[in-house]
Specification:
Length: 594
């Protein structure tokens, strides 16, 4: 007998997300499971530093405070809670939840998942954690746990693990698991699926978007929605944006399954409802990703404010005055942001910012001695000298790197409510299975779809600059306009790499985007990516392209390598660059449409 769909929600997309979200999700409508994602690469570094100060810490303390009221609400409503807030110490957080339950008089059973912590295997690492899958979560729920605490699992595992429990899926149910993984990827970042950080945010009221939930069916298909009456919006656009976030390639590799993003299909299913179907899954890889954080050294910065005329000369004077002081510093980077405007009517808009960032293995070389030298220039440098903030002491910065480890070597363990420890075996190699394609095997044939075809004019020009004479088609009228007039984007970080997902809002716009936005054009539009490896991946079902840029973020977000250290706005920069766009592709001006 088939089970009704699993109704699973999200109440946190990062450590520091909306505190009231857990209460809002528990009281806003029916749920079976509520998840919370608290971990990111930067979070592991923060938790690692917490653990250095106190070995009993290393978990997301915010979650425990949210449970002071939420635990009773979840118990009253029969909602299971699954979260990775355990961070580096899931057993410690599980004990803290039990103590809280006893204090507030709520009878709940608590389980946790461990085995991801590989710090002892990595010399000099602050943290080293394997990304586990959802099978440990499934085992805990099958044992009757009301609350499941994990350490570093994949974000999507918080959804795929409960789905496998709800429907009693087997490890070989790759298509179903892949569907749940895709739904989990949509939910994992909270309100990014309901209009937050959305390119076309002006089309919706996103002042306080509600958190998302998924209705997952037994075949792995799902509907993304939100509680009635909450803010924001769920549309094919908002879901597409989140699907493209922080992914690399069409194969979304995971510990339980490899989900094929090029098979995902989205359809409207009513107001604030988007259905996900067609997701195909393949066997997971034999290795697990391991995220490793280290203290990379010490950093400091000074921001000089340059106002009015002769901005370049003023910047050059400061740089020359500090040149001798910076000798011997491991890394000193200057950036001049020309935020100034000519003939400005406010002092702030007449000013540019000159930023100096210094890094060194020693805190002494980049501490107050260096920044004080910069301040000593105050009466003997450029006219109008001042800085954006007083100088401070050197601060440690972290670096992130990823490696892999055979899945069979990681002691993935479910610790059940009664204390029983259940080892979770790694998926069997593909050769040992009677079903399921190998990772590199082509997908089974589907019904034929119309092949992509650009007009001869587009095929001839390729770069979007108009068809050459004699190309075989009448050239279309073009207008210079930003790419964002017809395409959305979302970008993010993966260690030192960045991804930029771009999607078109119509079929004809997709034909143009696919033919026009090549890797060469991408790098020309975003000069900071020149000299780096850029890969382009096509997702035709989503009318989308996904670009991965290797190394643009240096050693990851915690190293502060770049002005936008997590590449959050890289996609919006791309959307602001101008193309010669065929006029017929552009949407009509507001007020002229139907």
């Amino acid at each position: 007998m088939s089970r009704r769909p699993l109704r699973i929600g999200n109440a946190s997309g990062f450590y520091g997300d909306r505190f009231s979200a857990l209460h809002e999700m528990l009281t806003g409508g029916p749920l079976d499971v509520l998840t919370g994602d608290y971990l990111a690469e930067l979070t592991m570094l923060i938790l690692g530093r917490d653990r250095l100060k106190n070995p009993d810490l290393g978990y997301a303390k915010t979650f425990l405070r949210q449970l002071e009221e939420g635990l009773g609400l979840a118990h009253e409503r029969g909602v299971r809670i699954v979260t990775n807030a355990g961070g580096l110490h899931p057993a410690g957080l599980a004990d803290a939840v039990r103590a809280l339950a006893a204090k507030v008089g709520v009878p709940v059973s608590v389980a946790h998942v461990e085995g991801d912590d590989l710090t002892s295997r990595e010399d000099g690492a602050l943290t080293a954690n394997a990304y586990l899958g959802g099978a440990g979560i499934t085992a805990c729920l099958r044992a009757g746990a009301d609350v499941v605490i994990t350490g570093r699992v994949t974000d999507a595992a918080l959804v795929s693990g409960p789905a496998a429990w709800w429907f009693d899926w087997a490890p070989e149910d790759h298509d179903r698991l892949a569907g749940a993984v895709v739904a989990g990827h949509v939910l994992e970042c909270g309100t990014q699926a309901t209009g937050g950080n959305y390119s076309f945010f002006t089309a919706h009221d996103v002042r306080r978007p509600g958190f998302p939930l998924a209705e997952i069916s037994e075949d792995g298909s799902a509907v993304i929605t939100k509680h009635p009456g909450t803010g924001g919006a769920v549309t094919t656009g908002t879901v597409t944006a989140q699907l493209l976030y922080e992914t690399q390639g069409v194969r979304y590799l995971g510990p339980d399954v490899t989900a094929r993003l090029d098979t995902v299909r989205l359809t409207d299913d009513g107001a604030d409802r988007v259905r996900i179907t067609g997701v195909r899954g393949e066997h997971p890889p034999a290795t697990l990703k391991v995220g490793v954080t280290r203290i990379g050294g010490w950093r400091n910065e000074v921001v000089f404010v340059l106002t009015g005329l002769d901005i370049e000369a003023k910047a050059g004077l400061v740089r020359s005055q500090l040149a001798e002081t910076l000798e011997g510093v491991a890394d000193a980077a200057w950036t001049l942001a020309r935020t100034d405007h000519a003939d400005a009517d406010t002092e702030e808009t007449a000013s540019a910012l000159l930023r100096l960032v210094v890094r060194d293995p020693s805190p002494d070389r980049v501490g107050r001695a260096l920044t004080s030298t910069a301040i000593e220039l105050a009466l003997g440098s450029y006219p109008g000298f001042h800085v954006a903030a007083p100088p401070g002491p050197a601060q440690p910065y972290g670096v992130f790197a990823s490696s892999s480890v055979p899945a069979a070597e990681v002691p993935h363990t479910a610790v059940l409510p009664d204390g029983t420890r259940v080892p979770i075996p790694a998926p069997a190699p593909p050769a040992a299975l009677s079903a399921g394609p190998a990772v590199d095997a082509p997908l089974p044939a589907r019904p034929a779809e119309p092949a992509f075809s650009a007009s001869p004019a587009f095929e001839a020009r390729g770069s979007g600059d108009g068809a050459p004479e004699g190309a075989g088609a009448e050239p279309r009228e073009t207008v210079r306009a930003p790419l964002g007039a017809l395409a959305g984007a979302r970008s993010g970080d993966k260690g030192g790499d960045a991804n930029v997902g771009v999607w078109a809002r119509s079929g004809p716009a997709w034909d143009w985007l696919r033919a026009t936005l090549t890797v060469d054009r991408f790098q020309a539009l975003l000069p900071e990516t020149r000299g780096l490896t850029v890969q382009r991946h096509e997702l035709p079902n989503l009318h989308a392209l996904n670009f991965t840029v290797t190394g643009i973020l240096g050693d990851g977000v915690a190293s502060g390598h770049r002005f936008d250290p997590q590449a959050k706005a890289l996609g919006e920069w791309l959307r602001a660059r101008h193309f010669d766009i065929p006029v017929h592709l552009l949407p009509p001006p507001e007020g002229t449409g139907p």
